[in-house]
Amino acid sequence: MPDILLPIIALLTGFTLLIYSADKFTENGAKIATIFQVSPLVIGLLIFGFGTSAPEILVSALAAMDGNTGISIGNAIGSNIFNISLVLGLSAIIYPIEVSGSILKKEWLFLMFVTVITGFLLWDKHLGIVDGLILTSLLLVFLTYTFKTAKNHPTNEFDEILKNPEKKQLGKTWFLLIISLLTLIFSAKIIVWGGVQVAKSFGISDLIIGLSVISIGTSLPELAVSISSVLKKQYAMIVGNVIGSNLFNTLAVLAIPGLIHPAEITSEILDRDYLVMLLLTVLLFIVAYKIHKKHIINRFEGGLLVAIFGVYMWQLF
Predict the structure, then answer these.
(1) Domains, the chain, ranges and CATH?
(2) pTM of this prediction?
(3) CA atoms within 13 A on the CB side of 262
């Protein structure tokens, strides 16, 4: 057991640095977006979506380079499951979430399309370079759409902290953004090393570690941002953050192992994990969409999402 102490300390230290640096990265990214008059939609889907998914992207890249493809794939799919079931579920339990109809018609629809395409790509139980290129191409489509939409919407005040940021602070903000990104990379490396060592110590596959410990750890920024948003009653940001993050997880995080270290995938990913991710993506629309009423995810529906997460974690082990 003493041999496992250092990896556990590494995991705890890595997660702590990860949450702190992701928060600073997102905060400074939003400040830069506001200074350059970028729309709130871009801040939500792009800055927050990318900012909170940066840990998954970095962990996936580092794990793939080390040949631990299972961690990369498990991290991408596990984070998507975590985001919809636990992040959105807990937020709705704290306070019912009102969802914009336009998000369900556009961003959710694109997420659903991407999720189905991912299933087809994984069907042959191989994640390769072609799969990675297809996912990356869809990511470029998403980014292009986001920027085009940004031009069609005026900039509004997004958060009290971000009101009227001074342009003279731009240099300092860029510096803090880069420092927080470097910290993200360092903490992600620690988490991958600790996760692999813990998996080996207990005889657990790197896929299961990626689906559970690492996906939960790297998704903590999404949870922090969503709980903060629901307490401020910024409901659009919660769903926007979850959908944006899941798009980045699917199109960027899952593409990385295919591009860096192509490998075969186990049948468990398709028969269990992908199906749960697909179910939750469909369920997100079902619990949010209300005919002739406001689109609200209530506390009961939030509890249902959390219960699904609990059952999924239970059957993993």
Answers:
(1) 2-316 (1.20.1420.30)
(2) 0.79
(3) 12
